[in-house]
Amino acid sequence: MRVGYAVDENALNRSYKQAVVGAIDFWNNQSVGSYDANYTYVSNASEAQILIQFVNKITYCDGYDNSTVGCAPVLEKDDVALAQTVRVEDRYAMESTQDIIIHELGHTRGLVHEDSNEVPVMNETIGTLLIPETNLENRSYGWQTTDFRVYFDTAGTVSSVEEDTYRQEIREGWQYWTKDTDHLEKDVSFRFVDSREEANIVVKMRDHEGVRWEYWVFNTDSDDSFEVYQNATLYVGERNPEYIDYNTATALGYLLLNAENETELPEPFDGDDELGDTDRWTD
Ligand SMILES: [Zn+2]
User: Fold this and answer.
1) Which domains does the chain have, with CATH numbers?
2) pLDDT in tens, 126-137
3) Where in the sequence does UniProt note compositional bias of the Acidic residues kind (predicted)?
């Protein structure tokens, strides 16, 4: 039986042609299921018996929940005359996507999960890999946001009398990286927030020299490497307010430029001593 298939272009934000063609090839050579199908591509989606639709997220499919990666009706031969939709999540790597489409097309041929002995791809769960994303080490900008919410943690370090002065210095530090300057290719913005929970940058005073920082990162795909920064804490030393802006700007420079060392930073953070050691950026 000839079965016309098409891919819904409206929902397609990434080309999965290879996965679709691979899945169709798989079934065109099989005779398991409730009917034999000769899948033929039709360019007009409204004429397709099977419409493959790529969607961001499938939250429910006939008794299955959030972990669902694809969804299709279980069909008998006569049902296929009606236009049927196969939904597939669009965040998986090509090979995984092909496996999902094969599985869902299996349902449209009447196969159910209990048929996985005969057709392994009909197993209820199949291994999937997320689309590989650029690792953090290869990114020039490692944040998913340009909106920086800064929490100034004064507990036990800064008195309420000093606090405004320190806040002003921190603000001067981040201003070095805002769009008024030309140091970043991204337009980033900063603002103080009242709680740590809202913040992606925390600033805390310490007694050591200079500035230190730690950060947390996300792994957003299926490999072993990290892809993006989640948040960071800056430990700004030297309780001399004159240096707080410089120290804040230094740490932010490393984090915003995803720099490995000072040579990747612009002046005056690049380690070039033309300004002299003590003549740092102060005001
Ligand atoms: Zn299934």
Assistant:
1) 2-122 (3.40.390.10), 136-275 (3.40.390)
2) 888 998 899 999
3) 263-276
